[in-house]
Write the structure tokens for this entry.
Amino acid sequence: MTQLATDRSDSERGCNSFDLPISKQTQTHHFRVLREAGLIDEIDYGNRKGIRLRRADIEKRFPGLLALLGAAPPADTAPR
């Protein structure tokens, strides 16, 4: 979700455009959980799916959350 939060263009992205170090099955589950939580919309094109962040709904429900996610340092630069 962080990749979607930092993309201010709010454009639709394909499921395969995310650099996730998880299996395809886990990725599918992850997107399903986000969709069922009301955080993303999935657009089904038959042979592929598009993902779009529901930015307005998230801001209304959780004010400041997306700004916080956008301000977080990348995972590989976190203090150890």
About this structure: The mean pLDDT is 80. The CA atoms of residues 1 and 16 lie 14 Å apart. Residues 24-36 form the longest helix (13 residues).
